[in-house]
Structure formats: structure tokens, C-alpha cells
Fold each of these.
Amino acid sequence: MQAFVVGVVAAVCRGARHASQRLHRTGRRTAGGVAALLWPLLAVAQAPAEPPVTLHYVVRPPYMMVQGEGLAGLTGGPSYQAFKLAQVPVRIEETPFARQLRSLKESTGQDCMIGMFWKAEREEFGRYSKPVYQDQPQLVLAAAGNQQRLKGHATIEDLFNDRSLRLLVKLAYSYGAPLDALIERLQPNRRATPDENLQMVRQIKLGMADYMLMAPEEAAVAIEAAGFKPADFVQLRYANMPPGEQRHLLCSKNVPVEVMQRLDAAIKKLTDKSPGPVPRR
């Protein structure tokens, strides 16, 4: 765009030189007209570039993976593509989840997180985009050796009420409003960690906790990425597990509303084209 404007300015300047040869006939009005024409073009050429938004990610297959200079995956792909489609300057940065959340809370820059569930309290320091993806209902992942200990629980409430079992949860993380509320109400025996999901899978295999919650689309990929085999784990599905939650971009309030509107418009175009539409909300 800047190169185009500079070219236009050069062309106008050439015209201005020819016009100057006739100034003795037309007087100052011609010079004033040329200056008035040049000024908006020069202003555009010299206008500062729009600052880039930092799009934070963690490597979390199949949700977020690096691909070339951008991101791919169930949430990383549409999030990065939305910035490109909306023509919002963006830079990607691998950042631990807890540090991402702290950056938004402290409002240190123009930052966005990928694949975030909606929580009312987070709207105090951030802006949510339209949903970029919706999970399937969560499952329970446990080491194969723990299968008998978990087998007698018919519902997720039964499992949470068994204080002999330890639920592994990520610090400051949301499992979606219904599950967050259930965990808060039943207060299962918990072990909290700041680690990302691949490290959490390893902790489950090593017996540092007994089970964790995970989206089905992530489980098989995460087990393999963590260096294990599917047979090393058991995946339990409960009929009363709440529906999967929608995932959004969550951006700091330093990201202007106008930019969020452009991103929302781009997300709508992308999700309208996707084979699996994002329902609800």
C-alpha cells in the first residue's frame, strides 16, 4: 500500500513540475491546489503501521501446531487464519499458559490467547472473539493400571466423590462452565499443576495422579506425542458428561474493539466455510 501511495505521489509531483511552468499565468491558486492534492497522499505514506498483535500458543496437538511461519490445528489454524483474513498484523509466540493469562491480566501489550473457554470473570480483563471451535464432550483419561479403581463409577459425579482418587488439573485453567461448577461443588481430591497437557499425560502414566479430563479429539494424539501407546491408558466416557464447550480467542483490552470486530467477521467467514459448524452462543 505504501509503495502504491509513493508511486502516486511521484506521478503527481511530475504533474506538479509541468504545472509550475504555467504558474505565471494561473498564480498562487494552482500551487495551492497542487499542495492540497499532495497533502492527503503524503499523510497516508507517512502514517505509522498498525502495531502487530501477539498471538500466543502452546504446542498442543491437535489443537495448536506450528506450520511454516504460522499455526495449524483445530484452534490454532482458524485463529491464525482469522488474523490474515482480517489483515490484522500478527506475530506468533510460544508462551506457557500461565504467563499468557498473566499478560492479559496485567495488560502488558496487545496479546491474544487461543482456544479459551468462556468465563465471566475473564471479561473483566479481556475480550472474547466469536468461537473458533467446539469440543466434543470431555472424557476421563487414566493409566491402564487404574482401570479397576475407576470401573465402579457410573457417573462423573461418582468419580469426583471418590476421595481415594486424585484428579489432575491445570492451574488457572477452565474445563468449561458446567465442569468447572461441578468441580467447585463436589470438591474432588485434586492435584494442580502448571504443566501443559503432554506433561500431564506423563504424570498420569507415572502415577503422580489418577485421572485427568481431556477432549476426545486430543487424547489419542497427546498419548502418542507424550511417547506412549494407547494401550497404556484407559479412556472413560460418561453419558452425563456435559456437552463440549466452545473455544474462542481471548485478547487483552489493549486490542481495540475495531480489531476484534474485524477478527469476528473473519472468523464468521472461516467457520461458515468449515464442514463442521460451530453451534451455540
Note: Residues 2-20 form the longest helix (19 residues).
Amino acid sequence: MIQAYLLRALVAAAITSVATAVLGVYVVSRRLSSVGAALAHTALAGAVLGHLLGADPYVSALVVNVAFSVLIAYLSLEDLREAEAVIGLLFGFSAALAVTLVSLIREYTVVAWTYLVGDVLGVSLGDIMSLAAVSVTAVNLVAVLYKEFKFVTFDFEGARAMGLNAALYHFVMVVLIALVTTVCLRTVGSILTTVLLVAPAAAARKLTHSFERTMALSVLISLASSLTGLYLSVQLNLATSGVIGLSAAAAYFVVSLVVAKLKYCKKCRLLVQRPSEFKLIDKD
């Protein structure tokens, strides 16, 4: 019979996987992967700030992260071509702030480890309820605003020209990423949140050109990575979040190698079947 803490960990990992996979497709498609990294470190800084002030670290992380996400959305809105540079700058700032705040804590190692790598095996029923509430809200908003988000993702200026309030949807999307990265702080920590946001979605994009199928595959890859990582970490007595992150990264690399191999084989078949299409240069 499965133990209660493992069951809670399975549920938490599954919820985290679905939420990050869904939003990760938008993050990867808009080439804003550094958003996840910046907000993950901001969540870490917010949690440490709450710890220093004697407040709930995760509530503090949520407030700080949402405020920071609004700043990111605003600064990257005027010129989307400069968004990557702006977010890179803010990523460095948030990381430096997090490190500075962590250094002020007396229990430096314990607190830093907790927020950096999470503790999915130690989640409580209350943690799962909070995680589920935020994740379900985020996924439902994505479902309701699916067409608008898709339009803004692939043609921001076109959406503006068609009269769509692209700026509003841009803000909503970034805030949703902030919400999800904050709840991930409890399960996989700040460092590996970016991996779950990017790796499954990036792997899925290599397998299909359909946006809908990309999202479905992203969820499947994320779930498989998280559950595989959880199982292996328990069996091998390793850090769970680390193994989950390695599993997600491994899934991306495996998919990349398989797709590259298939493309190579396809080119070889074309060369054999239609050699006349390939010009051979005879060197005298």
C-alpha cells in the first residue's frame, strides 16, 4: 500500500507538471524562456523576505512575484524586440536580490536549500490544496482565453491591428507565469522551475507543428518526467527535485536526438529514391 506522503507527493508533482507544461508552451513559443528563470528567482527572494519579516514565506513570494511580473510585462511591452534584454537584466537583479536576502538569514543552509530545491516529499494536504487552487485557476484562464493568448503569442502586432487588447493579454500571461512559478517553489524549488517550464514544451515542439498537439504532448512529457523522477529519487535515495529536473532535461535531449535521426534517415531515403534531384559535382 502506498504511503500517505508518497501519495501527496504524486499529486503535487502531477499538478505542478500540468500547470508548468501548459504555460510553458506559451513561454517557449514567445521565446520568453528567461521569464520563468527571472520569476523563479523573484519567488525565491520573496520567500526569503517573508522569512526575514516573520510572514508566511509563500504568501510573501506570491505578492512579490506578481508585482515583479507586472513590472516585467510593462517594461517588455513597448518594444518586444528588447524584451529579452530587459528580462535578462531583471533576472540578474532578482538573482542578486535573492542571494543577498538569503545571506542575511542565520539558518543560511537549511532555508536556502528548502527554497532552492523544494520539498515535494514533505508537502502537506494544505500545500496541495493551495497548489491545486492556483494551478486550476491558471489552467482555466488559459482555456477561457485560449484564442486570444494564441493570437498574441504568434502575432502580437497583428492582434493589436485587429483591435485586440494585446497588452492586457500580455500582462495576464506574465502574471499567470508568476503564479505558477511561485507554487512550484514548494514542490521543485526555484532552480528547477525553469526546467519544467521550458524542457517539456521545447521537446513537444520538436514533435509536432500543431499548437494544440504541442500543448497535449507538453503535458504528457512533463507528467512522465515528474513521475519518473519521483520514482527514481525514492528508489535511489536522491534529491527528488533534482531527479525530476534531470528527467525533464533528458526527455528533451532524447526527443532532439530522435528527431535529428529521423530527419537524417528521411534525407537518405530521398537521396536513394530521387537521386536526380541531387546534383553531383564531378571533379577532374
Note: Confidence is low (pLDDT under 50) at residues 280-284.
Amino acid sequence: MTFEPWQWVLLYVAATISGFSKTGIPGISILSVSIFAIVLPARQSTGVVLPMLIFADVFAFFVYRKNLEWRRVWGLLPWAVGGLVLGWLALGRVNNQQAARLIGAIIALMLVLHAWRRWRISAGTVMHTPAWFGPFIGVFAGITTMVANAAGPVMTLYLLAMRLPKLEFLGTSAAFFLLINWLKVPFIAQLGLINEASLTLNLYLLPAVALGALIGRPVVQRVNQKVFENAALVLAAAAAARLLLA
């Protein structure tokens, strides 16, 4: 793969965000996915992003391993595996243009869900979770993570609905994604999206992922999260619009 200098800059920025989103602010992972899907062919971006996410998941798991609720993870995982299969079937039947639009649509939907969640919280609404909520979130997380590596906002909705404290939120999310991303590997490899070229690009970008993961926890304790998250959402919205018009 050959890239222009500005494309390399975007790739390194996206890789850093990938790591940072695992140990810092989970919601900004959607921006990283958007950048990769713009710089790379949309389908191939899925295979490039996955190994970097797994690398960052390992960092996040060891940082927050003492702060997680395994029962939340095991409760979602079987449903998420079903969603992986559905996403794999969809990804195997679309071309790059269709994949770009599908990823754009998923990102746009995640942004809408994120905005809805914030509005409900700001309105002081107590959100009760019906029995179907967990299975629905599990299946939807499996589909979105397979097609677009964009299940972060889905898990955010679920874990906030479970009213987990911040550290338990981050630890449970880290454990879930460490497992689900490893389970995705044979599906993505079968589609030919993980290959020698994608793994070579991963090697160039892994230092940026590690940097993002290492600075995530100390930075998130100092940065104004609302301002940072709003900026990421605006940029992700612009990226979603770009992909939908591909």
C-alpha cells in the first residue's frame, strides 16, 4: 500500500485515537473508524483496523482488569457472536462503495444513538432496561463491530444503562472487546481482509496505537471530556457524510 504524506498523517492520527479510545474516552473510537474508511478502501479498512484494536484491547484490559463485571461480558457475548455471523454474511456480499455507505450509515446511526443518550441523561430521565435490551445490544454490537469496527457507542449505551461506575465501565468494555475482536479474526481472515499488506501497515501504525493507549488514562483525567467528545462527534459526522456520498 502506498500513501501520500497527508494520508500517512491521517493514518497515524487514527491509530493514536484507536489506542486512546480504549483507555481514555471510548466514544471517540468512531472518529478513528471514520478516518480509516476514508483513507483506505472501505472493506479493506476493516481488516487493517482489527489487529490494532486487539493490540489496544490488551493495553486496556491490563490497565482496568481489576475493575470489570464479568457477568455483563458473558451475558452479551453469545448474542454478539450471532451478530458477528450476520455481519460477516453482509460484509461478504458488498463492494467497496457499498461498504463505504454501509459504514457511513452505521456511524450516522451511532451518532444519533449517542445524541439520544446524552439528551435523555441531560433531561434527567431514569432509563429502565427491558428484558430484550441485553440480547438486542449484543446482536447489534456483533453486527456493527464486524462490518465497521464501530460497536463502541453501542457498548457505551449498554454500560451506561447498567449504571456502571467509570472504572467498571472501562474494565467491562475492555474485556468484552478483547474477546469479541479475537473472535472476529477468522471471519475477517476468511474474507481476505487480513493479509500480508494489511499486517505490514499494522506494523507501521502499532507504535501510534501504543502511544494512544499509554496516554489515555492520564489525559482523560485532565481534559475537558465534553469539549473533546463534541469535537470528535462533529468530525465523525463529517466523515459519515463523506462515506454516505461515496
Note: The chain has one domain: 5-244.
